[in-house]
Structure formats: structure tokens, C-alpha cells
Amino acid sequence: MYEIWLTLNILFELGLQYLPAVIGTMLLWLMLFAATRPGVGWRRALLPAVVVGAIATVITFFITPGMTLSSFDDMGYWVDWMNLFFYAAAFGAVAAALAWPIAASLCRKA
Amino acid sequence: MSDKPERLSSTQPADGGRRRFLFGASALPAVAGAGLPTGLALASTPARAALKTAARIVIAGSGLGGLAIASRLARELDGAKITVIDRKEIHNYQPGYTLVGTGIWPVGKVSDRNADLMPQGVDWMREMVAEFDPEADAVVTDRGQRIEYDYLIVATGLHLDYAQIEGMDVAAIGSKGLGSIYPGPDAAEATWRAMDAFRQKGGSALMTLPETFLKCAGAPLKVTFMVADRLKQAGTRDASRIAFHSALDNIFSVPRINDEVLRRWEKLDIPVTFHSKLVAIDIGSRRATMARPEGGRTEIDYDFIHVVPPMRAPDAIVNSPLPWRDGGFAAGSWLEVDPKTLRHRRFPNVFGLGDVNGTGKGKTAATIKKSAPIVAQNLIDVIAGREPSQHFDGYTSCPLLLREGSALLVEFDYNNNLTPSLPMIDPLQDSYFAWVMKYRLLKPAYMAVAKGRV
Ligand SMILES: Cc1cc2nc3c(=O)[nH]c(=O)nc-3n(C[C@H](O)[C@H](O)[C@H](O)COP(=O)(O)OP(=O)(O)OC[C@H]3O[C@@H](n4cnc5c(N)ncnc54)[C@H](O)[C@@H]3O)c2cc1C
């Protein structure tokens, strides 16, 4: 329990550090949802959104070590790989969440 | 207040029990980007019934320890009059000095306004405590104000005793190959300037370690690893020598970490001289004088030196009845607290928190993270007429930088047990995760500690 509380607090403080980016991303997401009309293809849009998320995950996975002044050579053991993967997957999830309403609107038009 | 406890007679300090604690969570990077919206919902803290009291509580010092305990007490006591005394306006994230001093972080990342961290509902007196009078339950400030208290928390940090090194001039840090990351952000930045200039040409680096207790005892080791790495990056390592001089018979008090670092330094060609203490420096001629316990002195020429100052309690503590009067902690006039409860051993309405404490381990932010809730609860117990219920185990954490991009995540307790927060963490393994902790995640954790939330 404590670990979860600590994690949430660290995320909260990180969020404060990058507040404009966080608010901007959330607003963008809400605007994208608000811009969709009734009857858009939410279910059909899931797959493209997941693909976008997967691509973002792969890209983040490869660029994160360099962006944190490190490299793949510094991955010492599985804990490092696991953390890098989760970090990348988190960005992938954000990308997927942003892609979903866009893809849904496009699916309707298609 | 009539509920103040009776004075205690001195008893021998007891060792802390062992409880694992976390100063970082391994799954954090997973959510560091995407999980932020979740975090933003975290404006409130877990609800807990506040104890009603009219106690007058004085907190001396508003560093990490003072802020953390002030935030907790302001929340967990209803009606208490809490006064924080400290003139400092800027709050510096000291663990960041190592990153600034080795060229990893820009200096701007380490400073915040103290006013932004001071909790609501406390009186902040922008003065310094000049005199502690625990016999009379009062402190006197440097402006002559006398403040009486029912309970006192001493969180004054420590004093960097550069004056013990003849010829040392803190203002000269950054020039003539002189580095020392300790005095503050500017000194850390200046240290990087000196190190950066040194690594371009290479030469002889002298790394020092005094014999006193230190805040973050891993910092001198981190700087040494980073000097080696910076030289390597600049292509001047082969043309350079790095010598580490320890005033002690070790370089780190935890034997397993000590041995591990020595093993790594042997591979990196960093020889260590034990029982060699920096006692004088000629900054202009770049010459250090090292003394041996039996009396001999050696002069060493260097191109770059990292000076780690001897450390002791601040003068106001030294000149008060509060320090240890005998034993190993008396030398630095450290606060005489019980290592488990962190309550003063002779003045039961006094508690200590942070670097000032005379305990076997733990002059780190990680220690404060674990001990601030313990001190808060123990004080609440005492106010409520109970004995302190919480015991501290001496938890300390030290992400030991090995090179740019990799670190060890070392956690231990009073008994030198390695106490990784999560079972999968290998404290002796070069790790990217440990690096990311130090580089990105510890400051957010630190801010949450300062705000009394974790
Ligand atoms: C280079 C370096 C690297 C570090 N690395 C790490 C790390 O990696 N991990 C980690 O956990 N910790 C690390 N630390 C240690 C950590 O930063 C300290 O242990 C922690 O900040 C101490 O907090 P404190 O509140 O006890 O003292 P401080 O933060 O120093 O605050 C003490 C306060 O008391 C005030 N004060 C002093 N005298 C008086 C007086 N007479 N009256 C009123 N106020 C007074 C001062 O103005 C100051 O504001 C590092 C420290 C340094 C210097």
C-alpha cells in the first residue's frame, strides 16, 4: 500500500513539474472527444489506436535511454529492461488514448 | 502545558529494528509519462483524525526535516501552535548537488522557494535560533526573541566545517582546480566548471574523505566515479591519475558496499590511501597537505581536488546542553537522541530529525522520509500522554552514481543490513533503473516528503 501511495505522490509531483504539458495533453484529449459526433466508429477505431500506441511504445523504448543520458549498454539486469518497457508502454498508452477519438472520427467517414 | 513528560535519565542507545521502506518504486517509470493525470487527483492526503491540543511546538530549522515534520504536525494536530524558526528563504534540493557538480543537471533544478513549501497554519519566524535552553523549555533567536515551547523539534541540519582545513576558501571553489559540491548550488556548479576544465587536459585528481560523520556518505564516492567517467568521455583518462584519500580505514561504513566500491575502483585504477586526512590546502599552488594519525604529513600536488569538509552540529547546538556528552557522537556535538524513537535522551519534550541527529547512520533525505512520520507519531503519542510507539531502524538510501547512465541503488539500516525496498532490486548491480531514480524520480519523492505526504 505504501509503495502505491508513494508512487502516486511521485507522479503528482512529476505532474506539477510538467504541468503545462499535462494540462495541454488532457485538454487535447477532451477536445478530441468533444469533436467526435454521435455514431462514430469507436469499436472499429480500437485497432488503429492500439497500433499507434504500439508504434509510440517502440519509439519511446528506443529513444528513452538516450533522453535520460544513458544507453542500452547500461541496462544491467531484467529490472532495468522491465522499467524501460513500462515507461515506454505508458507513453504508448497516452498515444493510443489520443489516437482513439481521431481514428474513431476517421472510421466514421470511411 | 501540564502534560509535558518528566526529564529522562541517560540510557544507552539501542539499535534499531529492521523495517523495509521504499524511497522510490520500481514501477514508476511505467507511469511517469502517461500516469500524470492520475497523480493530479492527489491533492489531498489520507484522512486521519487530528489530535486536539493547545501545545506550543517549536521547530528549529526548515530544511527537509523541518518542513516534513511541520507539514505532518499541522495536519495531525488540531489547535497546536506550531512555530518554525529559520531565516532561509531558498530551499535547496541537496541531493541534486552531486548531479550539478558532475555536469548532469543544470543548477536551476535544485532551488525552490521555502515559502512555497511551508505548510499553512504554522508561524514561520525568519530568524535563527541563537540559544537553546531546554532546561527552561525556551529558545532565544539571534534577534533576541525568547520563545517558550512545550515541545521542541531540532532539525537544524549540520555545519560544514571548512575552517578545519587550513587555507581553504569556499569562495575559491571553481577556480584553480578546486571543487567541493557541499556549500550550495553555486559551489556545485563551480565544481563542475573546475572538473570540466580539468578533464579537457587530464592530470592528477585528488579526492578526499574526512573522518567525521557525513551527510550522504556516498556523495564523495559518486563524485569520484563521475570524475573517472568524465575523463574517460573526454579521452584523457589514460593520461590522468585519480587518487582517493580517506581519513578513515574505510571509504563507506557498510562493509559490503565498501568492499564493492573498492573492488570497482581497483578495476578503474583508483588507488585508495587510508588514514590520510586533508588538513591544509594551498589553493594557488594546487597543493594539499594530508596528515596521518601517527603524525606524519605529506604534501600532494594536484590538478583537480574534491574537498569534502568535516561536518558537525551547528554552533547553536554545540553551545547548548543538547549534544551527546560522551561517546563517538560527542566529537561532532551531534544531538543526543535515542536512535529508535529519535526522542532526546535527557529532555523528553525534545525530538531530533535529520542531519543533526547523533545516530549511527542516516544523514540523508531518505532517512528523513522514513523518520519524519515516526517522529511525528512519537510526538503525538507524547502529547497524548503515551510513550512513543514508533521505532526507527536507521533506514538510509544512496543511489550511488557509477557513471553517466548507471548507478547502484543502495539501501541499508543501522545494522548495515542491505534493505532493498523491493525484493527484485539488486543493490550491487549496475543499474539503469537506479540511475533513473537519481536522475528523474528522487526529486519528486523528496518534494512529497517535504510536503509531509509520504
Ligand atoms: C552533496 C549532497 C548529496 C546528497 N545526496 C543525497 C542522496 O542521494 N540521497 C539522500 O537521501 N540524501 C542525500 N543528501 C542528504 C540530504 O540532502 C540531507 O540529509 C537532508 O537535506 C538534510 O535535511 P535537514 O533538514 O536535516 O537539514 P538541512 O536541509 O540542511 O536544513 C537545515 C535547516 O536548518 C536551518 N538552521 C541551521 N541552524 C539553525 C538555527 N540555529 N536556527 C534555525 N534554523 C537553523 C538551516 O538554515 C537549514 O534551513 C545529500 C546531501 C548533499 C550535501
From TrEMBL, chain A:
Transmembrane segments: 15-33, 45-64, 84-107
Keywords from the named record: Membrane, Transmembrane, Transmembrane helix
Protein name: Transmembrane protein
Organism: Thauera linaloolentis (strain DSM 12138 / JCM 21573 / CCUG 41526 / CIP 105981 / IAM 15112 / NBRC 102519 / 47Lol)
From TrEMBL, chain B:
Key words, A-Z: Membrane, Transmembrane, Transmembrane helix
Pfam families according to UniProt: Pyr_redox_2
Xref: SUPFAM superfamilies: FAD/NAD(P)-binding domain (SSF51905)
Molecular-function GO term, any one: sulfide:quinone oxidoreductase activity
Gene Ontology BP annotations: sulfide oxidation, using sulfide:quinone oxidoreductase
InterPro entries in UniProt: FAD/NAD-bd_sf (IPR036188), FAD/NAD-binding_dom (IPR023753), Sulphide_quinone_reductase (IPR015904), TAT_signal (IPR006311)
Name of the protein this chain belongs to: FAD-dependent pyridine nucleotide-disulfide oxidoreductase
